[in-house]
């Protein structure tokens, strides 16, 4: 594990302290968790963009053309 010196505005530090106390965790645990959540969100976005870039509109249309036509359920109409 590594140490990191972090400078935060007083207002953010105050919020972190209050929330960590309410959650029953240390400030360190709170910040570690928040950073992990942010990393997860960014990595998920990168993964989805990578998958989207591999997509083919022609293949998508071909697959949708195989779906039988049905009227939408009440409330699902466009």
UniProtKB/TrEMBL annotation:
Signal peptide: none annotated. InterPro entries: Ribbon_hlx_hlx, Uncharacterised_HicB. GO terms for biological process: regulation of DNA-templated transcription. This is HicB family protein.
């Amino acid at each position: 594990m590594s140490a990191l010196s972090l400078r935060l505005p007083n207002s953010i530090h105050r919020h972190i302290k209050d929330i960590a106390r309410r959650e029953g965790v240390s400030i360190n645990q709170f910040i570690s968790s928040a950073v992990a959540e942010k990393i997860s969100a960014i990595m998920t976005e990168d993964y989805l963009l990578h998958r989207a870039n591999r997509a083919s509109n022609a293949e998508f249309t071909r697959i949708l053309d195989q779906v039988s036509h049905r009227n939408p359920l009440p409330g699902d109409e466009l």
